[in-house]
Structures are given as structure tokens and as C-alpha cells.
């Protein structure tokens, strides 16, 4: 559109003859170019604003908060309820430090391989990729499996839940509180029943922020995880609302 | 519209405006990644920190440290409270070693120079190994050079040199071999004694800057804190330069350089004349000196005219150190004149007079420790030995030199012409983390591991009064960030001479396994078997046994004094004309070892608050007379060269002396050390102590020339000379027993007087103006 | 023992034990991800150093003395920096800490102008480390970006880590369990940190002892600092030992 305006402006300037007053000659190109500049500035600002907004994890305007991962890891199969064909594994089997440390811990390739060295089809592309990452190769010709830990390599997952740099979120404190105060747990999935319990295992409190991950084919973000949400929950449960509790 | 965020970003990134914005304010790509490592030991989990006990290997004192490791990275270092050498205290530059480990200029590849005039270029590890094997074959004449160390490293160096019929030498920039010589002459031991400063009532030190840099500063720092708490001890310090020790002492005495022995003898003179100590001690002491010399030759009033030190101060010191638990220590510049050994000897002999040997708060002699697989010597090779050695190199009698842990080309004075000597050695093989002048003059460069990645064992120097062996263990994986291709020095030598042992790790383990066998369930670790013993050693950072002390029956004092002339004084005694005494000193950068660490570089010097530069300290009144201002560019010229530095006048410099820090001015270094300051070590004249052959590094005379320019002086403090704004602000000074409140009151009155005086003065001044 | 919200963190610094080694300064840089101070920053007087050693001269050669004092944020109970912040980015929390909230700060620098101790530092440049050196950054501390103010936090990350650990182990926090980086690095134990509201803590004992050498900086401003100093002892204060031993009046 800008180009059309510019072209029309140039055409118009060309048509002007010496009888036209000077101020018209000066002003017309100025308006043309000026309009362009304004438009450019506005679009730059808009782009910046959109970026700043979208830079934070937030499901908005239909953008899905999920990513293609290097390996399609189905939480449904691992953590999903047994009735639905899952294995019903406890979250803390892989996210081992969630109740002990600030980070929930993304499991090492080693841990995946400890089952998948044997378990799982050799036809599956994803499992083949996992085995390559853990240094296991299938030699079809000789019907052999070669294990070479020197060849193992890390997997770079895409982060789904990301908090800004200036927030210090500590998993352990939250997990420990919620597992001792089950009434504060939110988003409880249908297949879990915690009503009336005084304490629940660590793996049943995750849903408060992460939703029903066990039933997600691909993990996506369900809660906005903005400061408002943190503060609301802290107020409700008597958590610290001092800025320095999270920002330092 | 079903776009995910990534697609949106890539779409919008296509427009030019978008590109600019996203580069500026989007999240870095790597922060969107969360990694599954191949193998994750529990202690490397995000957010959980682990503290490993090891030892700090950039100095020879064998300090025990705890290293904080988080996510497999070294983050922080603190003193190991368990370790007897530093008892939890830290040296100000411990952390700087982290930046050598993660230095952006760290070497990753082997390098080679094909011909002496060629340039260094990268070479594969295998090709380099072939060339190194050839250069170190059995028929080659080999010399091994390291920093002074008593460790597994030292043992392997010795063994390797032995296996090739070669020699093993050590070098230290501002060496203290005179200290070892003097201590041997008095105490007849090669071990530096444990100076029990923490339990002393009075400390008298000569030249040894034990608070900042001398021998074992972390341990002495802890002792300083102990001395200053409870029943507060007194510190007197004798040194021409105003070091941190001088600044923290209660009484600083600044004699003409080289005349420290006169002060010591004058103190003895007072103690003897006034009979301040028991007769037996006086007798013991006088046995050591030619008859009549001390009693009659060193009257404090005479000494005052000869050294410029007030007789009252000498009296004060004499009276103080003859009471309570007192100790006299000496070293540093006191031992580094042409009469350095004599100075040091005389100072230490005062311990005989005040009877401090073997007592709490005195000089506690250390046991002489023999340990298999630990070798080398804490005493550096003397300048005389080096002069002879370099002559051999120059004459082409040496085929291969292996250098580790010391930058010879940087730290030797011009007069030794070490580069010329290296040029005549066929193969110079150097180990190093970051480029330096010696690596630059080498034919083969081997990238070396840091002490965070390596095993080691070391006998601390000095020992804490009993047997101690510090352990160094890897705290991060060898091929971690910043370290690819690095090679262990010990493993490489073992590789070249397999008869030494199987690996560095196994040698270090053997050191402690021997202790397990010999300690018979005494000492810092008691275990049922070797494995759990080693685990205990790894947890505590070493092994020590408070029962293995020097047998008191074996404490012998060498007798009698064998210096023929007590009046032997330094060549730098008398000031002549325009010349100044040059006193070099070390800062946090040490001898340039840490100059590649920005933390060490930016650590503001305690006295001048200067950083990142080479400055010259000059007395402020003398500077005023000479018209020198702060930041003026000054050239210092000695008989072996000239350097440029920036002037920093302050009130605590002895007129006639100039003090210059070491550590800067490397010609070949990383980004943080190159192109800054100058190297004062190069212009030290190559004089040595006639008696011992030690390097007389404080015996250089320089002339001073102003270049005419002025640069902004990089310092932390403000632009005005920092005198208290009013008495006691902000540092309140009280007399013993006085409360802060009383002192504040007194200062208030003093300040009122000053104000009244000024007001009065101004009024008078105004009156005069009116009269005009 | 004192519960969390009744704590008042404070520090006692014995100037008699400070020997000016600067260990605390470097340790603070390392612990708190303070940007590297290159030579340019020294020349421009823009060095960032949450704790610093000041050296004051007394007298002239040969009777000259140097006095050292470490100065850091005094965590004043009556802090002049707090009321001037238009966005409430600096405030006092219930643990007696003067808090700086980085993500709230807009960089007006009013607080730095209000601070009589000059312990607040403004990020004039975006902090930058070469890629390799980023490995040593402390993940417990936010890296401050350009245009915001920062200052000593009493190593709040260590306070949080320590309190959390005590809570997880279901016990009270012990006195001396939490040490800020400067205290940990001080070889002479000149710095002691702890809870001033706990009558049994070392800081309380040191700051309330009657034989006291205790004083605070700029008491006339009534800032009520949580950092207490102990005066330097000079055994020769009233002794004239030199020919030129006249006190210097600058």
C-alpha cells in the first residue's frame, strides 16, 4: 500500500507545473514521505509490542503454546492412566528432583535408555532417535545391536513452560506445600481423586500449574503463569507476597 | 489462523524491520532449549549445589579450599574450614582462578613452531605427541623447569629429569631462597617454621608482607583476625615500603632499604642493655655474634641517624617484644638485598633473644616430612644457579627444555636474557592454559589442564606445625566447557616415561594409601580400608596428623654465627643523587599468573585503589618538589632497561624510594593481560646475594624521567587525597579500653577546635585583605 | 529463636580486623554476577562494587597511618532511598532488608542521589561476558540489565537458600548458618552477619556489648543502619613516637 501511495505521490509531483504555488510543491512530497514514515514507525512499534507480548508464554490470539520436539514424547503413554492405555507412571519417576530442588529435572538420556534399550519397537522413528542419542545402534545386516556410550549425545528439548529471567521459582517449596495442603491444588484431573485427603504424593499436585499433562499428547501450557496468578495463589494460601521472595 | 509461536517468529523475522527488533529484544534461542544430558549424576542437577574439598594450586602454600559446583560448572571458591593451613580463611584472589579455567583465551590445541624463526601453528595431538616423544628420547639432554612445589608434580618432574640424566630446576619471580638459607642457618631445618601469629601477643615482622602475599596469606589472615580479637596483640612491621601489612600494623618502621638488620640489632641492643629478658637467653643470643658487636655497636640513637628510624620507635618495639608471647618473622624485601641473607638471619635470631622458639605464639618448628611420590622443593633455585644453567642453554649443551607453571621469559630480568638462551635450545616444550611469553618462545605448546580438572597432592609450605598433605581432586569433568584438548602435565610425563607410574590419579592415590598404612589410625581420617580412607581424604581435602610434630629433642639451633662481618650492608644503602631505590611488590595478580583474570585485574589495590595498570608509588611531598602529579607518565630506567608507568603520589612512601607492582606488561597474553602496563621484573638489575647467590630483587636503583604526558589514573577512590573529613569519620579510632562514645566526644571537641582555628585564620586573612 | 517474619538481618564489621585485602570485594563480584569492571569504568568513576574498601590516610611520612573500612549498603531501617522511588522498586521487607526489585526499577536514579553512603550502582552499560566466562555466572542471582539500579542485597539468595533448607529439614535456622559472600571470604573474620532480633546471635552480642567500640556511619542523619561498625584500636593513640608526630589536619 505504501508503495502505491509513493507511486501516486511521484506521479502527482510530475504533473505539477510552474503555476502551482511553492508551498504545494513542498508539502505534497512531505505528506507522502511523512505518511510512510509514520506508518513505518507504527508498524515497528506494533511488531515490538507483539514480540514483547508473545515473548512471554501466554496462550493468546490462538497461538498454541506448544512445540515440535526433537522426539515426540507422549506423556499419555508414560504417565497416562492405565485404563486409557497409559502406564500410569509417577511424574517423579522422571522428574526426580521436583520435591528436592528448584528444578524439576529433565531426565537424562541414560534414564530413558534404561527402559528403551529393550522396551519399544525398533520400527518407531522416535525410539530409534532416542537410541541413537543414547549410543545404541541397530545393525540389521548382522542382526546385532551395538552399544557405544561414547557416541551418546544430549537431546535438546524445546522449553514449553518458561519464566522470565528475573523470577526465581523453586519447585520444591511449592510441591511440598501443596502435597501437605491438597485443598489448594487446582485443575485436578478427573482420574485423580484427592478429596478429603490430608496429604497427597508429589505427583498429584503438578496439575495446579501444568494441567493434566498425563493426558496431553503434546505438552502445552494451560495456565498463563503471569505474576498475577502467582500472587493470587500466594494470597489465598498465605505464601510470601514480598517482592524479594521471587525477585532477587 | 493456527500458527505456533515459532512459526510466527520466523514469519515476522522475514521483514527487515522485524529483523532489527527481534535481534534486539527477543529471547536468545538457547534459552528456549532445555537439555537432557546423556548422563546425569544426581549432584549435577540444576539448582542443587555441591561443595568439593580440594586445594588451591596457584600458590605454593597448599591452602585447602571448597569449590562450589553447580550444573557441572565451577561457581565459587571459599576456604576449607577443616584444613589446618588456612582454617577456612580465604585469599583475596582464590576466585580469580575460576576465570583462568573458563578463560575465553584458553588454549585448546597443541601448537608447534617448525623452525626457530617460524611462527606457531596448530598441530594435531597425535602429530604433536610424536614430535614430543622424539624430543624427549633417552639420548637427549633434558632440563625440566617448574614453579617451586613439593607435590606429586614435583616428584614426577624429578623422576623424569632423572630418567634422562637431566636436571630439574624451579623459578619464582620474587624469590625467597634467602629465607630458606637463613632459616637453615639458625634452626638447622629446611622446613619453614610455623609462625604462630594467632596466639602471639606481639608480632615483629621484617619485610614479609604476610597479610597480602607472603608465603601463606590465607592462614596468616586467619591468624591476624585471631590476634586482633580478645586479648589484642600488637604488630610492629619493619619494611621500607608501605605494604598492606605495614598499613595494618600498629607501628610501622621504614628504614633505608637494606638496613633492616641494623634495626634488629638495635632492638637487641636495647633488650640486652636494659636486661629485658632472662640472662640465659641473652647469652644464647650473644653466642651467635662476634664479641661486643651488638652490645656496643647499635645504640638506637646512632641507628636513628643511619637508618632514619626514630630511636623512640625502636625502644617501643624492644620493650613490647620482650614481654608476653612474641614472635619475629622476616622475609620479602628484607631478604632480597645483596645482604638479604644477613638481614633475614639477624631478624630471625631475635627469636633466640626473646625466647620464642617452640612456644605458643612463637616460632614452632615443623617436622621434616618424607612422603613417597611427593618430591620437589619449596625453595626455588637461586639466581646464581640460574645464571649457570642459562649459560649451558646458550652454549647449546641442552637439547630439550620442558617448562611448566612458570613464565620464565616474562619473569626473569633482562640481564639474564632468557629468550636468547631459549633460542639456543633445540626443543622448548611448554605447558600452559593461556598464551604467555614463555609459550611464545617455545617450539611445542601443550594445552594444560587447570587444577579444577586434575588430581594432585601437595605438602603445604609452611606446614601448620604438624604433618599435612593437601589433596587436589578434579571437581569438573576434563572435557567440560573451555577445556577441550587439555592435557595433564603429570600424565604426559608418565606417557613419555612409563616407568614412573601408571597415571597421575594412581600416584596421588598411592600417596594417601601410604598414609593409611603408616598413620596407624591416627590423624584426620580414620578408616577401615584404603578405599574408605581415600573417600575420607577426598571429603576433608587432605590428610593431617597433629601428633606428627618436630621432636623437641631434635630442635637444634645452629651455632655459632658464622658471618665474619656484622656490618655487611646492602649495595643500595646510601642514596646517591637523582637515583631512587626501586622496590617491586606483588599484588593480587601475583607474578602475572592471574593477570588473565578480570577479577584479579579489577581488584583495587589496598593502598592506591588502582587497577588494570602499572603505577609507581612516590612520596607525595617529594612528588610535589619534582612537580609530579597523579597520572603523570613516568619512565624508570635501571641498568637493565626502562619501563613506563603512571605516577601515584601518596604520603606513605619513603622519600627516595619508588614502589612498582608486578604482574602487568606481558607481551603475549590473553585479552585481559595484553597491552596494559609494564613489566617491572624485566628492569631489575641482576644482582645477587654474595653469600647465598639469591636474587637481590630489591637492590635495583632507577632514575626517574617524566615523559611529559598525563593519563587518567584508573583507580577506585575519588579525586581528593583521602584524609578523614573530620577526626574519626568514617573510621573511628579508639585507644585500648576507650569506648566509641568517648572517642567520638573527643573527636567532636577536636573538630570544633579545628573549625575555630580555621574561622580565626580566615578572619585574620580577611583582615589582612581589608588592610591592603 | 525468631520466626521468619520477625527477623532483622544485620551485620557487624570490626574495622580493627580489616586489613584491606579486598577479598570481600572480589567474593561479592563473583557471587552476585556483578558486571566486569574494565579499566574504562575505573577511569570514568563508574566502578560497580556492592562492597568496597575505603582507605583513609592519617599523618605524614614516617608517622603515617592508613585506616581501612569496608562499606556496603547499610540496610537502613529509615532508608533515604526508599521514599524517593516513584515506582516502589526499593522498599523495606519484613526481614529488615532494603530490597531492590530489578524488574520494577525504571532507572530514575533518585535512590542513588538520596543515599548518603553511595552504595547504589546504576547499570550504565548492558553487562557483557564473553561466552566462556558466562559459565561461572551464579544461576541464583538475576543478571541486571542496562538502565537499572542495583546494590548489596545481603546475599538474599543465600538467605533464601538457607531458610529453605532449614524449612525442608524441619528445623530452625541456626545463627551463623547463613553467611553472605563477603563474610565467607573475610580471612580475618572482621565481618559477622546474623539476626539482630535474636538476642543470642553473634551480631546481637557484638552490637550490644557494653565495653563497646560500636558506632554507625553518619548517625546525624538518623538512618538507623543495620550495619554496625566496631572502632579500630590504636594502642599508640596517645603516644608520641616520632620527631614529626604531629597530627595531620586536613
Tell me about this structure.
The complex is a heterotrimer of chains A (248), B (772) and C (250). Chain A has 248 residues and is mainly alpha-helical. Chain A has nine helices and three strands, in the order H-H-H-H-H-H-E-E-E-H-H-H. Chain A has three domains: 2-55, no CATH class; 65-104 and 159-248, no CATH class; 107-156, no CATH class. Chain A has a two-stranded antiparallel ribbon with strand order 1-2. The longest helix of chain A has 34 residues, at 22-55. The radius of gyration of chain A is 28 Å and the shape is flat. With 772 residues, chain B is α/β, with parallel strands linked by helices. Among the domains of chain B are: 194-364, Dimethylsulfoxide Reductase, domain 2, CATH 3.40.228; 580-710, Barwin-like endoglucanases, CATH 2.40.40; 727-772. In chain B, the strands form six sheets. Chain B has a seven-stranded mixed beta sheet. A six-stranded mixed beta sheet of chain B has the order 22-24-23-26-21-25. A four-stranded parallel beta sheet of chain B has the order 12-11-10-13. With 250 residues, chain C is α+β, with helices and mostly antiparallel strands. Chain C starts with 8 loop residues before the first strand and ends in a 17-residue tail after the last strand. The chains are: A mainly alpha (248), B alpha/beta (772), C alpha+beta (250). At the B-C interface, strand 4, helix 3, helix 7, helix 8 and strand 12 of B face helix 1, helix 2, strand 2, strand 3 and helix 5 of C.
Describe how the helices and strands are arranged.
The complex is a heterotrimer of chains A (248), B (772) and C (250).
Chain A: H1 2-15, H2 22-55, H3 75-79, H4 91-94, H5 109-116, H6 125-133, E1 136-139, E2 144-147, E3 155-158, H7 171-180, H8 207-210, H9 227-237
Antiparallel strand pairs in A: 1-2
Chain B: H1 5-12, H2 16-25, E1 33-36, E2 49-55, E3 64-70, E4 73-79, H3 96-101, E5 110-113, E6 120-123, H4 125-135, E7 142-146, H5 152-163, E8 167-170, H6 177-187, E9 194-195, E10 202-206, H7 217-227, E11 234-238, H8 244-248, E12 251-253, H9 260-273, H10 279-287, H11 293-297, H12 300-307, H13 311-321, E13 326-330, H14 340-354, E14 363-364, H15 383-394, E15 400-404, H16 408-411, H17 418-423, E16 427-432, H18 437-440, E17 444-447, E18 456-458, E19 466-472, H19 489-496, H20 504-519, H21 530-540, E20 542-549, E21 580-585, H22 598-602, E22 615-619, H23 620-626, E23 632-638, E24 641-650, E25 657-661, E26 700-710, E27 733-734, H24 740-771
Parallel strand pairs in B: 7-8, 7-15, 10-11, 10-13, 11-12, 15-16, 16-17, 21-25, 22-24
Antiparallel strand pairs in B: 2-3, 3-4, 5-6, 5-17, 9-14, 18-19, 19-20, 21-26, 23-24, 23-26
Helix pairs in contact in B: 5-19, 6-14, 9-13, 9-14, 10-14, 12-13, 20-21
Chain C: E1 9-14, H1 23-31, H2 39-44, E2 52-58, E3 65-71, E4 90-92, E5 98-100, H3 110-114, E6 120-122, E7 149-151, H4 156-168, H5 181-185, E8 191-195, H6 202-208, E9 214-215, E10 227-230, E11 232-233
Amino acid at each position: 500500500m505504501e508503495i502505491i501511495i509513493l507511486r501516486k505521490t511521484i506521479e502527482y509531483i510530475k504533473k505539477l507545473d510552474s503555476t502551482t504555488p511553492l508551498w504545494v510543491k513542498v508539502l505534497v512530497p512531505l505528506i507522502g514521505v511523512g505518511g510512510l514514515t509514520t506508518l513505518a514507525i507504527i508498524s515497528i512499534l506494533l511488531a515490538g509490542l507483539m514480540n514483547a507480548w508473545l515473548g512471554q508464554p501466554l496462550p493468546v490470539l490462538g497461538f498454541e503454546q506448544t512445540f515440535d520436539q526433537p522426539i515426540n514424547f507422549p506423556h499419555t503413554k508414560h504417565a497416562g492412566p492405565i485404563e486409557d492405555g497409559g502406564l500410569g507412571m509417577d511424574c517423579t519417576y522422571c522428574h526426580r528432583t521436583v520435591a528436592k530442588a528448584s528444578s524439576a529435572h529433565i531426565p537424562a538420556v541414560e534414564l530413558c535408555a534404561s527402559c528403551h534399550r529393550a522396551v519399544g519397537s525398533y520400527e518407531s522413528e522416535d525410539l530409534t532417535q532416542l537410541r541413537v542419542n543414547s549410543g545404541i545402534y541397530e545393525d540389521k545386516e548382522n542382526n546385532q545391536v551395538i552399544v557405544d556410550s561414547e557416541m551418546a549425545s544430549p537431546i535438546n528439548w524445546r522449553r514449553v513452560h518458561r519464566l522470565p529471567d528475573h523470577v526465581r521459582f523453586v519447585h520444591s517449596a511449592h510441591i511440598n506445600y501443596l502435597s501437605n495442603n491438597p485443598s489448594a491444588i487446582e485443575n485436578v484431573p478427573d482420574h485423580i481423586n484427592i478429596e478429603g485427603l490430608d496429604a497427597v504424593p508429589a505427583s498429584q499436585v503438578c496439575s495446579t500449574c501444568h494441567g493434566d499433562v498425563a493426558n496431553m499428547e503434546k505438552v502445552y501450557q494451560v495456565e498463563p503463569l503471569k505474576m498475577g496468578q502467582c500472587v493470587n495463589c500466594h494470597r489465598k494460601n498465605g505464601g510470601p507476597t514480598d517482592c524479594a521472595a521471587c525477585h532477587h | 489462523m493456527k500458527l505456533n509461536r515459532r512459526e510466527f517468529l520466523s514469519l515476522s523475522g522475514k521483514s527487515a524491520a522485524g529483523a532489527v527488533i527481534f535481534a534486539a529484544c527477543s529471547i536468545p534461542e538457547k534459552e528456549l532449549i532445555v537439555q537432557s544430558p546423556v548422563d546425569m549424576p544426581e549432584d549435577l542437577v540444576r539448582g542443587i549445589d555441591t561443595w568439593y574439598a580440594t586445594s588451591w594450586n596457584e600458590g605454593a602454600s597448599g591452602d585447602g579450599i571448597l569449590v562450589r559446583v553447580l550444573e557441572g560448572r565451577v561457581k565459587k571458591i571459599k576456604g576449607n574450614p577443616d584444613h589446618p593451613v588456612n582454617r577456612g580463611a580465604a585469599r583475596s584472589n582464590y576466585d580469580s582462578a575460576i576465570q583462568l579455567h573458563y578463560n575465553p583465551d584458553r588454549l585448546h590445541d597443541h601448537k608447534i613452531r617448525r623452525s626457530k624463526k617460524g611462527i606457531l601453528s596448530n598441530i594435531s595431538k597425535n602429530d604433536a605427541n610424536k614430535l614430543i616423544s622424539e624430543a624427549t628420547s633417552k639420548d637427549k639432554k633434558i632440563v625440566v623447569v617448574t614453579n617451586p612445589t613439593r607435590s606429586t608434580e614435583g616428584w614426577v618432574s624429578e623422576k623424569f629429569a632423572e630418567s634422562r640424566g637431566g636436571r630439574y630446576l624451579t623459578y619464582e619471580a620474587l624469590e625467597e631462597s634467602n629465607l630458606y638459607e637463613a632459616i637453615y642457618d639458625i634452626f638447622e631445618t629446611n622446613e619453614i617454621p610455623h609462625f604462630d601469629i594467632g596466639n602471639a601477643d606481639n608480632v615483629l615482622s621484617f619485610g614479609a608482607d604476610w597479610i597480602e602475599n607472603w608465603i601463606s596469606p590465607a592462614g596468616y589472615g586467619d591468624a591476624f583476625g585471631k590476634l586482633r580479637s580478645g586479648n589484642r596483640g600488637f604488630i610492629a612491621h619493619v619494611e621500607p615500603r608501605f605494604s598492606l601489612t605495614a598499613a595494618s600494623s600498629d607501628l610501622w618502621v621504614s628504614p633505608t632499604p637494606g638496613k633492616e638488620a641494623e634495626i634488629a640489632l638495635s632492638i637487641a641492643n636495647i633488650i640486652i642493655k636494659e636486661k629485658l629478658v632472662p640472662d640465659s637467653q641473652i647469652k644464647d643470643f650473644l653466642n651467635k655474634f662476634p664479641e661486643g658487636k651488638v652490645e656496643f655497636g647499635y645504640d638506637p640513637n646512632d641507628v636513628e641517624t643511619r637508618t632514619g628510624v626514630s630511636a623512640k620507635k625502636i625502644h617501643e618495639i624492644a620493650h613490647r617484644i620482650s614481654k608476653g608471647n612474641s614472635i619475629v618473622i622476616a622475609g620479602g624485601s628484607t631478604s632480597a638485598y645483596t645482604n638479604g641473607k644477613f638481614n633475614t638471619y639477624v631478624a630471625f635470631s631475635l627469636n633466640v633473644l626473646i625466647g620464642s622458639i617452640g612456644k605458643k605464639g612463637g616460632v614452632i618448628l615443623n617436622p621434616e616430612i618424607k612422603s613417597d611420590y611427593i618430591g620437589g622443593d619449596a625453595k626455588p633455585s637461586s639466581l646464581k644457579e640460574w645464571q649457570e644453567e642459562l649459560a649451558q642453554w646458550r652454549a647449546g649443551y641442552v637439547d630439550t627444555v620442558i617448562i611448566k607453571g612458570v613464565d620464565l621469559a616474562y619473569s626473569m630480568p633482562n640481564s639474564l636474557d632468557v629468550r636468547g638462551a631459549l633460542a639456543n635450545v633445540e626443543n622448548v616444550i611448554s605447558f600452559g592454559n593461556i598464551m604467555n611469553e614463555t609459550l611464545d618462545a617455545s617450539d611445542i605448546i601443550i594445552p594444560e589442564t587447570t587444577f579444577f580438572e586434575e588430581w594432585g597432592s601437595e605438602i603445604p609450605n609452611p606446614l601448620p606445625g604438624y604433618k599435612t598433605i593437601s589433596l587436589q581432586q578434579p571437581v569438573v569433568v576434563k572435557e567440560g566447557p573451555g577445556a577441550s584438548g587439555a592435557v595433564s602435565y603429570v600424565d604426559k610425563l608418565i606417557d613419555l616415561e612409563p616407568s614412573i607410574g601408571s597415571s597421575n590419579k594412581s600416584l596421588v592415590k598411592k600417596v594417601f594409601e601410604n598414609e593409611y598404612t603408616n598413620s596407624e589410625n591416627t590423624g584426620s581420617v580414620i578408616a577401615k580400608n584404603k578405599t574408605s580412607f581415600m573417600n575420607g581424604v577426598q571429603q576433608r581435602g587432605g590428610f593431617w596428623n597433629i601428633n606428627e610434630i618436630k621432636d623437641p629433642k631434635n630442635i637444634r639451633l645452629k651455632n655459632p654465627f658464622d658471618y665474619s662481618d656484622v656490618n655487611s650492608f646492602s649495595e643500595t644503602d646510601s642514596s646517591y643523587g637523582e637515583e631512587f631505590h626501586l622496590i617491586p611488590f606483588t599484588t593480587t595478580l601475583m607474578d602475572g599468573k592471574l593477570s588473565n583474570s578480570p577479577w584479579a585485574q579489577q581488584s583495587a589495590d589496598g593502598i592506591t585503589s588502582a587497577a588494570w595498570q602499572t603505577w609507581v608509588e612516590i612520596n607525595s611531598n617529594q612528588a610535589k618538589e619534582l612537580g609530579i602529579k597523579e597520572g603523570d607518565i613516568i619512565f624508570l630506567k635501571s641498568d637493565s632497561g626502562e619501563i613506563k608507568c603512571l605516577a601515584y603520589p601518596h604520603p606513605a612512601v619513603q622519600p627516595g624510594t619508588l614502589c612498582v607492582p608486578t604482574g602487568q606488561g606481558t607481551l603475549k597474553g590473553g585479552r585481559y593481560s595484553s597491552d596494559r602496563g609494564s613489566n617491572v621484573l624485566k628492569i631489575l638489575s641482576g644482582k645477587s646475594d654474595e653469600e647465598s647467590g639469591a636474587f637481590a630483587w630489591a637492590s635495583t636503583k632507577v632514575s626517574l624521567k617524566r615523559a611529559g604526558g598525563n593519563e587518567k589514573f584508573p583507580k577506585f577512590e575519588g579525586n581528593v587525597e583521602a584524609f578523614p573529613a573530620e577526626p574519626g569519620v568514617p573510621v573511628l579510632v579508639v585507644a585500648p579500653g576507650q569506648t566509641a562514645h568517648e572517642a567520638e566526644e573527643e573527636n567532636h571537641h577536636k573538630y570544633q577546635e579545628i573549625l575555630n582555628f580555621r574561622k580565626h585564620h580566615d578572619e585574620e586573612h580577611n583582615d589582612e585583605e581589608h588592610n591592603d | 529463636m525468631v520466626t521468619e517474619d520477625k527477623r532483622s538481618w544485620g551485620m557487624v564489621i570490626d574495622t580493627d580486623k580489616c586489613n584491606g585485602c579486598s577479598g570481600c570485594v572480589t567474593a561479592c563480584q563473583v557471587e552476585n554476577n556483578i558486571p566486569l569492571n574494565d579499566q574504562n569504568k575505573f577511569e570514568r568513576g563508574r566502578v560497580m562494587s556492592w562492597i568496597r574498601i575505603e582507605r583513609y590516610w592519617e599523618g605524614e611520612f614516617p608517622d603515617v597511618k592508613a585506616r581501612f573500612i569496608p562499606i556496603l549498603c547499610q540496610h537502613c531501617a529509615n532508608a533515604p532511598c526508599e521514599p524517593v522511588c516513584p515506582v516502589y522498586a526499593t522498599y523495606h521487607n519484613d526481614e529488615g532488608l532494603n530490597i531492590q526489585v530489578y524488574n520494577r526499577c525504571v532507572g530514575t536514579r533518585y535512590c542513588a542521589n538520596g543515599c548518603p553512603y553511595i552504595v547504589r550502582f546504576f547499570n550504565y552499560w548492558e553487562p557483557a561476558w564473553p561466552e566462556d566466562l558466562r559459565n561461572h555466572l551464579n544461576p541464583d542471582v538475576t543478571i541486571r540489565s542496562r538502565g537499572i539500579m542495583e546494590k548489596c542485597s545481603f546475599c538474599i539468595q543465600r538467605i533464601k537458600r538457607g531458610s529453605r533448607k532449614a524449612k525442608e529439614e524441619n528445623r530452625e535456622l541456626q545463627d551463623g548458618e547463613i553467611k553472605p559472600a563477603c563474610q565467607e571470604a573475610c580471612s580475618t573474620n572482621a565481618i559477622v552477619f546474623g539476626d539482630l532480633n535474636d538476642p543470642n546471635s553473634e551480631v546481637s552480642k557484638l552490637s550490644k556489648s557494653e565495653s563497646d567500640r560500636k558506632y554507625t556511619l553518619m548517625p546525624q542523619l538518623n538512618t538507623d543502619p543495620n550495619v554496625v561498625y566496631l572502632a579500630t584500636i590504636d594502642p599508640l593513640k596517645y603516644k608520641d613516637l616520632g620527631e614529626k608526630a604531629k597530627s595531620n589536619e586536613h
